[in-house]
Fold:
Amino acid sequence: MKVINPEEIIEASKFNRFHLGLLVWGFFIIMFDGYDLVVYGTVVPVLIKEWGLTPVEAGTIGSYGLFGMIFGAIFFGMLADRVGRKNVMILSLFLFSFFTMLCGFADNPAIFGTYRFLAGLGLGGIMPNVIALLTDYSPNKKKSMVVSIVLCGYSVGGMIAPLLGIYIMPILGWESIFWAAGIPILLIPLLYKKLPETTAHLIRKGRKKELIEVLSKINTDLSFSEQDEFKERKESTSKVPVIDLFKNKRTLSTCMFWTTFFMSLLMVYGLNTWLPNLMIKAGYGLNSSLAFLVTLQGGAIIGTLIIAKLNEKFNLKSLLVFLYGLGALGITLLGYGGNTVYIYVLVAIAGASSIGAQNLVQAYVSQFYPPSVRSTALGMASGIGRMGGMIGPILGGYLLSISLPVHLNFLAFAVPGLIAATALLIVPGSRAYGKNNADKKEESLPVLNTVESSIIK
Structure:
């Protein structure tokens, strides 16, 4: 009989078809998460006219989905660390897709807002669990890149929404933009078949056959049998997993991550909800303003991939601090105008430093904490962050309602970038999982260096 640590096998594995499949499905799920990020901002200029909304009312409706995400991110994040990520992901995807689709059938703001809240519950559970699952199964040297590529799906979805707004909305109406969100429901049976459960959950539930099947796909050169004993590293010891986020001297880190997420998502949702209206106020037409949303998402993709690649040589935290600072400068300069090419460049920088930085900070957090509380860590940070996300649309609506100069509106979304950079700078890298001496003392199995040595005969 062999004693096997699955985590060591995964960390030392090479990227193969199994990892590629997981990446593709993760990208697909996150793409629709990103679609929701921008879908309301795409239709809000039309809804303001059709339903006679004030900017403050429109901003408040935009925050309903984010309010749901707070509860969804925290609840589903903690639940997944207890009952497994796969089922929670599928349930979250169904809730989001179904109720976002129903938004296209709403005929008044109250019903629309209710559907947005219910969709938000599902949306809150998607991101933490997708990222945690990818981090669980990615080879050690590829974790940041895999997560970063998948999170680019967030921006691809964010680009699709305004493109549909430009080409489809004039023909089929604003409702059609929400109907498209129902597509993932059709693929749920296939997702359930293809997505793996985490090895830790399979071990706890005694599902050895499934575990062997997954590990055989991760490393085809190794063989396993049901007589082998599979062990995981020490799991959470608290009945309330969130308590573990403050153990092993991580209190300061956890608080700073929550601050970063709060400020980052305030920028993300504020800009994605109000950028078209702000650009209209600056003298651009609706289609041109929607094109700026596409550019915002394109900048996020480019920024995410560039920083993820630079992470192979430089520290990710330092890169993120720089990116948030650059974004604050770019967003500030947007308020002073300029020629069209210059504005598009600034919008792309804003996308890289808001959405792109948010993508990357999630990759950083997913590796900062032990696997046993990974979903909880991301869920709590996302939940706190969604509170900032709620404030973003409301803040933008309020600023537009009091008719401030355009440059002050943009400055209001630049300041959170500086705060996020400062909070992240304070995070001590020595407390990260794998570097924290307190973690090493609690490991139930020794850390082994190779795939071969992770199997003890």
Summary: The chain has one domain: 3-456. The domain at 3-456 is CATH 1.20.1250.20 (Growth Hormone; Chain: A;).
